[in-house]
Write a structure and sequence with these properties.
By secondary structure, the protein is of the alpha/beta class. It folds into 3 domains: 74 residues, no CATH class; 220 residues, 3-Layer(aba) Sandwich (Rossmann fold); 34 residues, no CATH class. The protein is built from 15 helices and 9 strands. Strand 6, helix 12 and strand 7 form a beta-alpha-beta unit. The site of adenosine-5'-triphosphate (ATP) has 16 residues, from helix 7.
C-alpha cells in the first residue's frame, strides 16, 4: 500500500530515510543520480537517452517496482503496523436499498471508533465489510479503501499476516493443545526474538482479563467462553501485527472489558468496536450510528460524555461487585438510599 505516485515525487534521500532497506534496490538499478535530493520524477526527466537505456524502466515502472520492493520488505520485517494510515469507508446502501447519507468516512490510525445501533441493524455487517475489504461485493455495496487505495486482494486470503484481526462473539478453539502449546505455536509463526517472555506475558494478561483463572497446562478446548476470549484478546493484542482490529461485542465475554480494550488499543492501530455498552461506546473517539443496515450518523464523543463515562464507571463497578457477590453465594444488601431513589419507571 505504498503509494507509487508519492514515491515518484519523493527524493532518493527521503526514500532512504523512510525505508533504509531500499539502498540495495537503488544499488541494483543502474540509475544515474547526480543529486539525491532530486525527486525520482526529476531524476528520470534529466536522464540522457543512453542513461535511459541502461535503466530499462520508465519512471512509472521504476516507482512500481520500488513500491513492490518496499512492500515485500515490510512484510518480511513484519512492519504491517505502519502500513495503514487511513481506513476509508465509501457509502453503500441500507436494507431498503437507500444510499447512506455520507460519501466517505476516513478513520485514522490510532483512532477508536465504536459502532452502535439496535440489534440486527448491521453492526456486524459493517465489521465484516471491513474484514473482507469489500468492493461493492457485499449486501451493503460499501467499498473499503486503505490509504485511499483499493486494497490488495491478497489481504482477503493470506493466513498468517492479516490486515485485520477480528475478535467476534463466537470464538471457539478447535485444536487439541494446551494453553502454552498454543501460544508457543503462534509465537513461533511470528518469528519473534524473545518468544518465552512474550508468551509468558500473554498468559499473564489473559488471566488478568478472565474472571476465573486457568493454568498453563489447561487444554484450550476446555476453557470457558470468557477464558477463551481473554486468551484470544491477549494474544491478538500482544502478538498480532494486524493494523486494524475489529471487536464485536466484547461485553458478552465475561471478561474485564475495559482492561481488554486498553490492551488492544495499540497506538498505531485502527480499532472498530461494535457495542451495546455505553462505557465502551464512549471510549471511542467517534461513534458510528447504524440503523436498518445503513450508517445514519457519525458523532464525535464530547467532553461532557467523557465526564459521564467516569460516572458510568462508578455504576459499573457497583454492578460488577454485586455480580461477584452473587457468584460467590453472598447475600446482597441495598446499595444506598440515593440509588434506591433513582426512578426506573
Ligand atoms: N445494508 C444492508 N443490506 C442488506 N442486508 C444487510 C445490510 N446491513 C445488514 N444486513 C443484514 O442484516 C442482518 C443483521 O445484521 P447484523 O448481524 O450485522 O446486525 P447487528 O447490528 O450486528 O446485530 P446484533 O446487535 O444483534 O449483533 C445480517 O444478515 C446482515 O447481513
Amino acid at each position: 500500500m505504498i503509494n507509487k505516485d508519492k514515491l515518484k515525487n519523493s527524493s532518493i534521500n527521503d526514500i532512504l530515510d523512510e525505508y533504509p532497506y531500499t539502498e540495495s534496490f537503488f544499488e541494483g538499478q543502474k540509475l544515474e543520480v547526480d543529486d539525491a535530493d532530486k525527486s525520482l520524477r526529476e531524476i528520470f526527466a534529466d536522464l540522457t537517452v543512453e542513461e535511459m537505456e541502461d535503466v530499462v524502466f520508465d519512471v512509472d515502472q521504476f516507482a512500481a517496482s520500488l513500491a513492490s520492493h518496499i512492500r515485500n520488505m515490510q512484510e518480511f520485517l513484519g512492519e504491517n503496523d505502519s502500513i495503514v494510515g487511513t481506513l476509508s469507508i465509501l457509502a453503500g446502501k441500507d436494507k431498503d436499498g437507500i444510499r447512506e447519507n455520507y460519501d466517505k468516512l476516513d478513520i485514522k490510525s490510532g483512532e477508536i471508533i465504536s459502532i452502535v445501533g439496535p440489534t440486527g441493524s448491521g453492526k456486524s455487517r459493517l465489521l465484516a465489510d471491513i474484514e473482507w475489504t469489500a468492493q461493492g461485493d457485499t449486501p451493503t455495496e460499501r467499498k473499503i479503501l486503505i490509504n485511499d487505495e483499493v486494497p490488495d486482494k491478497k489481504w482477503r486470503f493470506t493466513g498468517g499476516k492479516k490486515l485485520v484481526a477480528q475478535l467476534s462473539q463466537n470464538m471457539n478453539f478447535v485444536m487439541d493443545l494446551s494453553v502454552m502449546e498454543f501460544l508457543n505455536l503462534h509465537a513461533e509463526s511470528r518469528l519473534i526474538d524473545n518468544q518465552e517472555d512474550v508468551v509468558e506475558r500473554i498468559f499473564k494478561e489473559a488471566n488478568q482479563l478472565a474472571g476465573e483463572q486457568f493454568s498453563r497446562e489447561a487444554q484450550i478446548t476446555s476453557l470457558s467462553g470468557g477464558q477463551s476470549r481473554a486468551l484470544m484478546i491477549a494474544d491478538t493484542a500482544i502478538l498480532s501485527s494486524s493494523p486494524i482490529i475489529l471487536i464485536d461485542e466484547i461485553e458478552n465475554a465475561g471478561i474485564n472489558r475495559e482492561k481488554a480494550l486498553e490492551l488492544l488499543v495499540g497506538e498505531e492501530k485502527v480499532v472498530l468496536m461494535a457495542t451495546h455498552d455505553p462505557i465502551l461506546a464512549l471510549m471511542g473517539d467517534k461513534r458510528i450510528i447504524i440503523n436498518n443496515g445503513g450508517i445514519k450518523d457519525i458523532i464525535d464523543t464530547t467532553g461532557e460524555e467523557k465526564e459521564l463515562m467516569q460516572e458510568l464507571k462508578v455504576l459499573d463497578k457497583v454492578l460488577t461487585d454485586l455480580r461477584e457477590d452473587l457468584r460467590y453465594g453472598k447475600n446482597l444488601s441495598k446499595i444506598s438510599d440515593e440509588l434506591a431513589e433513582v426512578k426506573t419507571a
